[in-house]
Amino acid sequence: MMVSTDWPSNLPLLQMYQVDLPPDPKEVAAIEARRNQEREQQSRFFNVRTRVMGVDVEALNNQVEERKLQEATERSKEAAYGTNQVRYDLVAQMLEKEQAERTRRLAKKVQNFREQRQKLRNRCELDFWNSNQLWREFPAYLGDNAPYYGQASLQCFSGEDLERATYLRMQQEQFQYSLERQLQEQQQARVDENCADMLNDQLRLAMDMRAAQLAKLEESCRIAMMAATASANKAQAVKLAEQQGQEHQRQQEANLVEVQNQITSDLLTENPQVAQNPVAPHRVLPYCWKGMTPEQRATIRKVQETQHHEKEAQRQAEQALDAKWESQAINLAQAAKELEEQERELCAEFRRGLGSFNQQLAMEQNAQQNYLNSIIYTNQPTAQYHLQFNTSSR
User: Fold this and answer.
1) Which of 57, 69, 99, 256 has its CA 20 to 30 A from that of 186?
2) Residue 148 CB contacts under 8 Å (≥ 6 apart), including other chains
3) CB atoms inside a 10 Å sphere around CB 392
4) Which is nearest to 243 in space by CA: 23, 9, 61?
5) 264 near 97, Cβ under 8 Å?
6) How far apart are the C-alpha atoms of 57 and 62, rounded to whole Å?
7) pTM for this one?
8) Is 210:90 a contact under the CB 8 Å cutoff?
9) CA dist., res. 237 & res. 65, Å (int)
10) What is the pLDDT of residues 9-68, one digit of tens each?
11) Which residues contact residue 84 at a Cβ distance below 8 angstroms, ignoring those fewer than 6 apart?
């Protein structure tokens, strides 16, 4: 049996893989930020009030000053960071020294404990590296009172402890020795603890003194940084004031030179020759023209009067032409009126002739109908006539 792999016609492939995924917020925010930046650039570029053609020297100088101030601030921050780093390094070194001292004291205590408590003569473990230890602990037979043989050797029986006093004395001496060693160890532990406390106090005092010194150094660095920032701001303010003063003085000098040029030049004079164009004599220079001369004004008035007379003659000719057109329109209206009256008379005469003709035609039709009814159609058909007609037709 074969299985068909075709998809149903009512379920397209695109519908199977159609997934409505939401957009990435970061990507949407980045696209929106770029669009806003482009809008701001367009508004700044196409705004004729804020747009600057060429190089903006003042903006460049402000950028240089801001860069210098930023560099000075970064240098001060780096100096403060270096001071803090030195302080942290010193504290870390002191902590490392304290940790090393603690490790050394602990190792010394362990070594003392091993030397005092873990001697070879006091150990109870079996030495695996010395296989003849048990044979050496039990020498050859020395007598019935030998201390190396116990009850299992049938050499020493119960009730025959002949050296009990010696054993008791040895036990007391060992107890006394152990008590003295404990007292010594306790005293040494107290001494070590006192020394450790004293060293801790000295270390804490040294750390406090170092922290105070570093705090003073940091405060001095901060004060120096503030002083350097204040001096830089003052120098920048002085420089800015000097620049503004120089700019004001330069502007004043430029204004004074412009006033002098205006006074001494032909711009404010009434000389008409100044406004003549050297290339085209029939034209004038707009920025130097001071008005027309009397001859030019008289010529213009004469031309205006001539134009006025021409305009008046043209107006009279137009009036005469309009009068002719009006009279012609009146004549045409009268002729049209006469034609309309003639047309009405002809229509009335035509209607009268048509009425008489229709009346005569009606009389003739009536006479013919009377002739047919009275002469031709006098015999009425009977029922027998209709019956014969029907049979003959069958």
Assistant:
1) 99
2) 137, 138, 139, 142
3) 7
4) 61
5) no
6) 9
7) 0.25
8) yes
9) 11
10) 444 444 444 445 677 888 888 999 999 989 888 887 777 666 656 556 777 788 888 888
11) 218
